[in-house]
Amino acid sequence: MNKQHKSTPQIQSTFYHANAIVESQNQLMPQRLGTDRHKLQDNVSFRQNKAEQLHQKIFVSQQINRRKMRTQQDNQICKPAPPSYNLPSDPNIAFIDQ
């Protein structure tokens, strides 16, 4: 049932025209093309470095958040008992030193 889109002669001529313009510019300015490639490569490597730095920052912040959460949980678990529970209310009960 899929109808494939057939390109009309007008579309084909437009693409041909655009390609011809690009090729003529490349032939007129080959040295410019080389510098553009270098700029593009520099831009790509710059973006990759930025992305790696961002991932590193995210990773570090996630680690810090995990440590904070772990510390909070440890503090809740290992909280010292309130002073009223430290001594038994019944004087007959004695603590055994370990």
Assess the beta-strand content as a share of residues.
under 5%
Q: Report the principal-axis shape.
A: rod-shaped
Taking pLDDT < 50 over at least 5 consecutive residues as the criterion, the unreliable ranges are none
**Structural class, judged by helices and strands?**
mainly alpha
Secondary structure: number of strands: 0
- H-E order: HHH
Mean pLDDT: 70
Q: Helix count, per DSSP?
A: 3
Topology:
Elements: H1 9-28, H2 30-77, H3 83-86
How would you describe this protein?
The chain is mainly α. The protein has a domain at 31-77. It is 73% helix and 0% strand. It has 3 helices and no strands. It has helices spanning 9-28, 30-77, 83-86. It is rod-shaped.
Summary of the model, kept short:
Residues 64-98 are annotated as: Disordered. The protein contains 3 helices and no strands.
What descriptors fit this protein?
98 residues; mainly alpha; rod-shaped
